[in-house]
Each structure stands twice: as structure tokens, then as C-alpha cells.
Amino acid sequence: MRRISGIMVFLVVVLGLMLPACTEKKHTTSKPIVMVSIQPIKYFVEQIADTLVDVRVMVPPGSSPEMFEPTPGQMVDLSNADIYFAIGLLDFEKGLEPKLKDQLKVRYVNLSGKADLIKEGTEEHDSVGGHHHGVDPHIWMSVEEVRKMSMQILQNLQQLYPAHSDFFSNNYIAFGSKLDSLKEQVNRILGKSSNRAFLVYHPALGYYAREFGLRQISIEQEGKNPSLKGVVDVVDQARRLGVSAVLSQSQFDIRNAQVIADELNLRVVKVDPLAEDWENSMLHIARAISGEHDE
Ligand SMILES: [Zn+2]
């Protein structure tokens, strides 16, 4: 008896010492790191994972994902990440994919794997965007493409963190309802106006145009400033189609957009397809196209 109670006391003391140490450790343990290519993906991941993960974005605000190169500091961040969510159509991602998979053993998810892609220079796409490989990469500007992306995000997060599987599922369902209502709101805003065409500096809204039955006319020609003839063509096309707005992006030089807007007697409205607040950005674009003024 004496020996047993001695062991009991020993255990109680040891466990008593261990318990606060364990809870303490849990508090200081940092969240799992999820890397993403662009800010809208951060928004989608957080819709599903909420604050359970620490989402880090490769392309900083104000930069163009088509011109971007990762920094050495970001490569260190990457090695600490559990997973990388990529659009899968951007040049810098193509260089990262083998490094992530082979050297860093980070799970790489190509979010365009199930996308209904727009091939540029075909009838369904009015203007040649000059993106590499002839595919329009801006899939995140379509509600339905985002729905497919969020399903992939859900499945991967559930595999990595199965303890939170139900939490992720519930959030995914809630996000799905948000997407439904967003689509309705965009349709309602666009329905107030008869304008179905818009001018945009960089052709980032091809999927948006396809989804909502609009026509995108790009000022940029094959990734470059337009020639004089290019400008004249764009102005002609815009007149014919009755364009209501000239959209420009902060990542690009707006002087050409302004020249064309002046010629057509239209306003230049800034839009940001790379904004982290993706839902508001989608609504702002609808208001810009329909000629509603909000800043
Ligand atoms: Zn682009």
C-alpha cells in the first residue's frame, strides 16, 4: 500500500507539472501556414478555414501576377507551408510547382484543374490578351469558377486537417449561399442598364464577361500599350457597342485609358480584380459597367 500511494503521489506530481506545460505549448504553437498566389485566393481560403490557418500571399498588392517573381524571403516562407493554392496558369507558378513538390514537399494544388478555360484569340474572347499559352488566367473573376475552386480548397483542407472537417464543410455551404446571392446582386445591378459592353485596360474580366453576358474590349494589345491604330480600333468598337465605362486597374498605366475615355466622353473607373475583398470587387465592377458611380 505504501509503495502504491508513493507511485500515485509521484504520478500526480508529474502529471500536475506536465499539464500546464502542455496547454502552454498549445497556446504558443503557431497556426499552420497556407500559401496562395494572389489575394482573392486568400479570401476564398479564409471563407472556409476562417482563422484556423495563417494565409500568406505571394503577389503583393499593386503588383501584376503576370510580371511577378518570388523573393528569396518568400521561398523560406514556402518551406514552412503545409500547402500551396495556385491558379495554375500564371508564369511564376509554373517555376514554383516542381520546387514545391520535389524539394520542399509542399502540397501544390492547381485551382484551375476543373476550370472551363477561355482560350484567347478565339471567337468567344473578343480581344487578344497576350497571356502566355493563349489561355486567359483570370478564372477567379467568375462566380462559378470560384465555386469549383472553393470545393477544391475544402477537400484539401479536410485532408490536411481532418479534425476540423465539419467546420470546413459548414463554412463551404455558407460560402456557396454567399456566391448565389452575389450572382443575383451582380445581375440586378447590370440589369438596370442596357450597356452590355465595357472597355478595360488589361483584359482581366473575360470570365466575368462570359458569366454575365457582357463584352469585354481590351485597350492593352497582346500585353502591350496599343499602337495608334489599336487605339482608333478600340474607340470605333466602343462607339459601335455603346460602351458605358472605361475600367482601369491600379497595376497598370492608366494614361491610355484616360485618352480613350476622353475621346468617348466617358469616365475612367478604377477596378481591382486582385483585391482581397473579392465580393466587393465583383460588385464594384458591376456598378462600373452599368454606369453607376461609386468610388
Ligand atoms: Zn492578366
SSE inventory with pairings:
Elements lengths: L1 H27 L4 E4 L2 H11 L4 E4 L14 H8 L1 E6 L4 H13 L3 E4 L32 H18 L4 H27 L5 E4 L5 H7 L2 E4 L9 H14 L4 E4 L5 H10 L3 E4 L6 H13 L5
Parallel strand pairs: 1-2, 1-3, 3-4, 5-6, 5-7, 7-8
The site of zinc ion (ZN) has 5 residues, from loops.
Q: Would you identify the regions where 5 or more consecutive residues have pLDDT less than 50?
A: 10-28, 122-130
N-to-C span: 80 Å
> How much helix is in the residues?
40-55%
- Which ligands does the model contain, each kind named once? zinc ion
Q: How many strand segments? A: 8
Quick recap:
With 295 residues, the protein is α/β, with parallel strands linked by helices.
What does this structure look like?
The chain is an alpha/beta fold. The protein has a domain at 33-112 and 141-183: Rossmann fold (3-Layer(aba) Sandwich). The protein has helices at residues 2-28, 39-49, 72-79, 91-103, 143-160, 165-191, 206-212, 228-241, 255-264, 278-290; strands spanning 33-36, 54-57, 81-86, 107-110, 197-200, 215-218, 246-249, 268-271. A 4-stranded parallel sheet has the order 2-1-3-4, with helices on both faces. A 4-stranded parallel sheet has the order 6-5-7-8, with helices on both faces. α5 runs antiparallel to α6 and α8 (228-241) packs across α9 (255-264). The model is unreliable at 10-28 and 122-130 (pLDDT under 50). It binds zinc ion. Zinc ion binds at residues 66, 131, 138, 202, 204.
